[in-house]
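Hi F.,

I've been meaning to write this up properly since the lab meeting, where we talked about keeping a consistent format for the predictions we share between groups. The idea is simple: the sequence comes first, exactly as it goes in, then the structure tokens exactly as they come out, then a line or two of notes. No screenshots and no reformatting. I'm using this chain as the first example so we have something concrete to point to.
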Amino acid sequence: MAGASEIVVTLPGGRRVDAQVGKHLVRTDQPLDNGGEDTAASPFQLFLASIGTCAGIFVQGFCAKRGLPTEGIRILERTHHAEDGTLSGVELDIEVPAGFPEKYREALVRVADQCSVKKAIQLQPRFDVRTVVAP
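Output, unedited:
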């Protein structure tokens, strides 16, 4: 696979699952009602957070290029789920302070829409899952 990268996932105990991403350790857990200890966000919560934080990086970069302050800017992410619990939609509201220049507001929407996480989801990548024996 061209451009492949590797993340190593380990099972440290209980319902916790960790991922070594480069030099960063990302910890996850399950909520109490799903047998976990709620010591960290669940994998699905991290997935959802990656959408909003990715949009945030694009918004931050847009503001930095134009010398616009980022104080008071928040992205409010709302998820919608079908009756069976599956994710059916995601809304991102970019909340800006009253003094944020009106001429840049729609541009913020366009730049946040360039989020690479969102684009990856929309492209529906192939998933290959298999068992291999450790050396």
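Notes:
The chain has a mean pLDDT of 95.
The longest helix spans residues 43-66.

If this format works for you, I'll send the rest the same way.

G.
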